[in-house]
Write a structure and sequence with these properties.
By secondary structure, the chain is mainly α. It has 2 domains: 76 residues, no CATH class; 235 residues, MetI-like (MetI-like fold, Orthogonal Bundle), CATH 1.10.3720.10. Helices cover 77% and strands 0% of the residues. Helix 12 crosses helix 13. The termini are close together.
């Protein structure tokens, strides 16, 4: 077996082991939480008896030992069957996730792109003009971004721009009569509804990303090869974008890879506040209803995004730094 095949096999084995560990812990934790799906269906029903609750638990398989429930769930997952929701509609979990995924995924991808477009230049400029007015202003922005909770910023913006100055819709994804609008009217309506949530998403991650970029760029600018390039009189753009930027991007790529799981987790609060029918809101509703299959479906998706983020970061390292590609080629 070649060295490349061994590395790929080891990587895949590691992914499988980590994924199984995540699912085991998640499955155990959600069952340890107080309450159960049957409570949601029987507590508010005065005619529900203990026998009716027992029949519901048997119907959902909750009367079996926890390890048997996990093995049954895992066997269905291998067949790409996420099970059916325990809510009143009993729809397949995958169908409910697919309905909500495009909105959450699209908003978070747009937020990541905007964050990179804004944060990378801010970090570069702050490092190059260290201690000057721009750097101090960016530092203030960073502290505000770190200190301000996303839900509080969302509420402030809703009050200012939706109530005090009614410039934007306060919640929801579309306006009344959306189906009767033309194409461009629909696009404008969607943009107006998504402006505030997208701003909150981007502002929350902008501060950290720009600060990481600044610190990394400062470290690279102190290297001997950068000092030599500047001493030779190379243009500023050449020094920064050709010699310094690629090496400075490596820590940022790491943070970007770790941000991929936030496509779900970071959406729960924002989508709940703005009443957006996304995956985060669906996950919140599943937790409140103790809908175990729905919760596990969302957690599995989050685990896959986490592992995918690590893989993408690993690949991006090689694209950003030729030395990593050379080391991998030598290892093969």
């Amino acid at each position: 077996m070649s060295e490349l095949a061994k590395r790929l096999a080891a990587k895949l084995l590691w992914i499988v082991v980590v994924f199984l560990g995540i699912t085991v812990i998640s499955f155990a934790v959600i069952h340890l939480a107080p309450g159960s799906p049957t409570d949601m269906q029987t507590t508010l029903n005065p005619e529900a008896t203990a026998e009716a609750r027992a029949r519901l638990e048997a119907f959902y398989g909750l009367d079996r030992p926890l390890h048997e429930q996990y093995v049954d769930w895992l066997s269905r997952l291998v067949r790409l069957d996420f099970g059916r929701s325990m809510s009143s509609d009993h729809r397949p979990v995958w169908d409910k996730i697919v309905e909500r995924l495009p909105l959450t995924f699209g908003m978070n991808v747009a937020s990541l792109v905007l964050t990179l477009i804004i944060a990378v230049p801010i970090g570069i400029a702050s490092a190059w003009w260290q201690g000057r007015a721009f750097d101090r202003a960016a530092t203030v922005l960073v502290f505000i971004g770190f200190a301000m909770p996303g839900f509080w910023l969302a509420l402030l913006l809703m009050y200012a721009l939706c109530i005090h100055w009614p410039l934007l819709p306060i919640s929801g994804l579309t306006s009344y009569g959306f189906e009767q609008m033309g194409f461009w009217e629909r696009m404008v309506d969607l943009a107006r509804h998504l402006t505030l949530p997208l701003f909150v998403y981007t502002f929350g991650s902008l501060a950290g990303m720009s600060r990481f970029m600044r610190s990394s760029m400062l470290e690279v600018l102190r290297q001997d090869y950068i000092l030599t390039a500047r001493a030779k009189g190379l243009p500023l753009s050449t020094v920064i974008f050709k010699h310094a930027l690629r090496n400075a991007l490596l820590p940022t790529i790491t943070i970007l890879g770790l941000s991929v799981p936030g496509l779900i987790g970071g959406s729960v609060i924002i989508e709940s506040i703005f009443a957006l029918p996304g995956l985060g809101q669906l996950f919140y509703q599943g937790v409140m209803a103790r809908d175990y299959p729905l919760i596990m479906g969302n957690l599995v998706l989050g685990a896959l995004l986490t592992l995918a983020g690590n893989l993408l970061a690993d690949v991006a390292y090689g694209l950003a730094d030729p030395r990593i590609r050379a080391a991998r080629g030598a290892g093969q």
